[in-house]
Amino acid sequence: MVLYGHPLFLGLLTFFATQLPSIMADCPLDLSVSNFTLVASICSTKDDRGKCCRYINSFIAVSVARHANATGILGVTSDQSDICLHSISQTMELYGVPHNATSFCGLGTKIPVSYVCNGRTTVNQMLQSPKFVDVMQNCKLPLSGESDCRKCLNAGIVYLHHLVGKDDNVTLNTCRDATFTTLASQVDDTAAVTFASCFFGIQGLNIPTVNISSPSALAPEASPSPLLGASPNEIVSGVPSNENHHSYHLNLVPGVGIAVTGVAFAMLIVLLVLIRRKSRELQDSENMDKTSSNAFSRPRPIKKYQEGPASMFRKFSYKEIRKATDNFNTIIGQGGFGTVYKAQLTDGSVVAAKRMNKVSEQGEDEFCKEIELLARLHHRHLVSLRGFCIERHERFLIYEYMANGSLKDHLHSSGKSPLSWQMRIQIAIDVANALEYLHFYCDPPLCHRDIKSSNILLDENYVAKILALLMLQKMALFVLSQ
Q: Phi and psi dihedrals of 351, rounded to 5?
């Protein structure tokens, strides 16, 4: 639903821009250049809550870094913290970010506005902490490629574990944000955005600049666009203060007041229409989720999911699986829950087909619900589920093919070459990233409960990925208690 070209929507953004400085007046954090329309768009999608949290965290972290650049302090003072949290929440709701999104993401707890890392509250204290110089050396700009970003993140992880030790995840996340703030406070806004894109794993994070053609540019210190220049204060201030124009002022002010009131009323109507339309879309989405398990029993088209990298997910026929596995003669593994075959599909792609052991009386609805949950999991360190098969009392799960097998093979099989310590550390970091995604950014949060070397697979580049099993085994995944 694209509305940027609509005059009323542009007027709505103008109204928000005039209200933002007054909302944030008592909070020293400058969020006026944050692209809240982007956050509202992402947070309005039910399946993108993890991405929503990362964008909210990144915008707040960038504003704290700008504050640290001016003051040298890692956030606001304790007496200003509640004011800023209230102002940020109010501002996000003003731009259409759902209230339950800020609650789910833990605004104020998981996402604070003051970073106290093991007693360190200033940029200088972080810069002088042990091994921080290693972080600065590995995070030199530009972070042009994925390898540069990973090198920077790995240096940060090593530094944080040396600094924090075995503290809880909240402390670790706070110190991570403090590390980002320290780095970003040493550079300009554009470079700070580069650091944020790397640290928080997001794309398209751009601080908007004001120009006539960009309705989302809301920086108050920039020269106003024609729409912003139409506010009553600027119209009055634009008239010469010559005594001859006093009567003109008296006639102009009531007219401007009536015009502004009319525009505000029209924008309120537009806002109510948009909210009503979005509520209907969310309700329709929930209804589709309730009926999705029944739809699995019929042939269904290929579906693209929004979270994480783009992936293709579909239902396969038993005939396709049998042909792709050469009549089930390409066994590459066997475990307690089934046999795994190497399968080459008709389009030339290679996948792994896991044939589940006979599941006695499990209904298709229950099996499909479990597949629906797994299909929503998308992360670079989780083995992607490509599809499934339910036919002739058979159950197949189709995963991406991992060329180097399981970590267990490399640790315990005599025919495999031993892994270097550097590779082992990188595998541990990859697994930790996957677990963080499952615990904090899934909706609902999940716990794997069966992490072991045989469930950690390696691709052709020895990148580690966790195999997320079905709940058929009654031990794979369960919802974390809130």
A: -135, 175
Strand partners, 478: 447
Residue 465 assigned to a binding site? no
| The predicted structure's pLDDT at residue 365 | 67
Report if pTM > 0.70.
no
- Six-digit token pair at 462? 């020895």
pLDDT at 323: 93
Question: At residue 387, what is the residue type?
Answer: G
Tokens read off for 291: 């009926």
Q: Residue 12 in contact with residue 270, Cβ under 8 Å?
A: yes
pLDDT value of position 415: 79
Give the pairing type, strands 456-458 and 478-479.
unpaired
Please, is 341 exposed, middle or buried when counting C-beta atoms within 10 Å of its C-beta (0-12, 13-18, 19+)?
Answer: buried
User: Which residue numbers in the chain have pLDDT < 70?
Assistant: 1-25, 32-34, 46, 166-170, 204-253, 284-312, 336, 358-366, 392, 469-482
- List all residues 6 or more positions away from 199 whose beta carbon is below 8 Å from its beta carbon: 58, 61, 153, 156, 176, 180
Instruction: List residues bridging with 107 in a β-sheet.
Output: 111
- The pLDDT, as a whole number, for residue 204 is 65
What's the Rg (C-alpha) of the chain? 27
CA dihedral for 145, 146, 149, 154, sign (positive or negative): negative
Q: Do 335 and 352 form a contact (C-beta atoms < 8 A)?
A: no
Q: Which residues contact 339 (CB under 8 A, 6 or more apart)?
A: 331, 333, 354, 355
For the record, the structure tokens of 175 come out as 């110190």
Region of residue 348 (left: phi > 0; alpha: psi -120 to 50; beta: else):
left
d(CA 189, CA 187): 7
pLDDT value of residue 270: 92
The residue length of the chain stands at 482
Residues annotated as catalytic (active site), given as ranges: 450
395: tokens are 């159950």
- Cα 165 to Cα 178: distance, rounded to the nearest angstrom: 16
